[in-house]
Amino acid sequence: MKRRRTTPKARKRGAVSGQRSRHTILTIDIHAHFVPEEYLRIIELEGEARGVRLRSGPDGPLILVGQVPVGPITAHYHDLDLRLRAMDAQGVTVQALSLMPPMVYWADDALGLRLARLVNDTLAAASRLHPDRFVALATLPLQDPEAAVGEVDRAVTELGCRGIYLGTNIRGRELADPSFLPVFERIHALEVPIFLHPLNVIGVQRLANYHLHNLLGNPFDTAVAAANLIFGGLLDRFPKLKICLPHAGGALPYLIGRLNRGWKVREECRNLKKPPSSYLRRFTYDTISHAAEALDYLIKLVGVDHVMLGSDYCFDMGYERPVEVVTALELRRSDQEKVLGGNATRLLRLR
Q1: What is the pLDDT of residues 35-72, one digit of tens each?
Q2: pLDDT by residue (tens digit) across 292-303?
Q3: Are strands 68-70 and 62-65 parallel, antiparallel or unpaired?
């Protein structure tokens, strides 16, 4: 695999802290993927025995999880100079950097921890090199909850990561599984937000054609994860826990009426004291809906304070012009500023 070095000489552009010379509105992309080259190298050397491998392609390697391809991983995923130029062209001031599927849960405990530490060190280094352009969202080796607790502490208190990045399920286990409670306890105590991303989506056998594992699998898996967090009592147990749902909440906002109906008529849903819809504002949401009508509905449903700019950088299923998606909506300027950057500034506790 041809490796491209990320130069440390890229000059700093823009600012989180008010020195914005180019953009009059602070814009923070909450959903932007970053893939360290060494992460790919480890998959190349050690992944195949664990069901994950690289396949070369004209635009960069693909990560194969079984037969499901992820990628291609172009140079933009790890080259900071290319990324900064793309951000400037998009009008994005800051990116919150997170890994991408298949994350680190495919590895055994020891390799999962090594991968998580590698990813978090690399993202934190990018944030230190360009503190006004990048913040880091830490990956955790949740296949080993005890190690994950330690990595939460290290990533947040030592590396300065501003949030935690989790899959919607961990090897098929829901996030509300009791084995993960110590991890959520530590995240809750540190008061950092969680950012979810679909992984190992449900019904994958029926979603093999037409890229449906992404087109449909991703939004439905987000809805399944969120419903389990609600009905499983995790949000009640940790009242200050903040969780961001990708892809405009997936299917959750549009099926919330069915969840409410189930809560009303089904005995197995009666553990909640309040209807599921009352939990919608416990979540935040990115803007990646690919339909202005859907995004407008989401904002009306959950409130403008709960929606943040996202691009899915740099997947082809993301937005090339994420800022324009927001400015095209009929929002007051003050509400535009909240979605574009104000809400994320508050959530990530930026200056």
Answers
A1: 999 999 999 999 888 888 888 888 888 888 877 778 78
A2: 999 999 999 999
A3: antiparallel
Backbone angles phi, psi at 238, to 5 degrees: -120, 85
Query: Can you tell me the distance from the alpha carbon of 191 to that of 260, in angstroms, rounded to the nearest whole number?
Result: 29
Task: Return the beta strands (E) in the chain as ranges.
Answer: 28-33, 52-55, 62-65, 68-70, 94-98, 134-139, 163-167, 169-170, 173-174, 194-197, 243-245, 283-286, 307-308
* Residue 192 to residue 279: CA distance in whole angstroms: 19
Cis preceding-peptide flag for 198 (omega within 30 of 0) = no
* CB 287 within 8 Å of CB 338: no
- pTM score of the predicted model: 0.90
Which residues neighbour 254 within 8 Å (Cβ) at sequence distance 6 or greater?
294, 297
The token pair that represents 213 in the structure block: 């594992």
Question: Could you tell me the two tokens for 277?
Answer: 């819809």
Classify strands 169-170 and 194-197 as parallel, antiparallel or unpaired: unpaired
Task: Say which DSSP state 191 is in.
Answer: T
Q: How far apart are CA 114 and CA 200, in angstroms?
A: 21
Cα 92–Cα 84–Cα 121 angle in degrees, nearest 5: 105
Q: Report CA torsion sign: 324, 328, 330, 333.
A: positive
End-to-end CA distance of the chain: 40
Q: Which residue has tokens 């080993």?
A: 144
What is the rounded distance in angstroms from the CA atom of residue 219 to the CA atom of residue 128?
33
- Distance CA(113)–CA(141), nearest Å, equals 5
Report the alpha-carbon distance of residue 103 to residue 197 in Å, rounded: 10
Cβ proximity of 159 and 121 under 8 Å: yes
- The CATH homologous superfamily for domain 28-345 is Metal-dependent hydrolases (3.20.20.140)
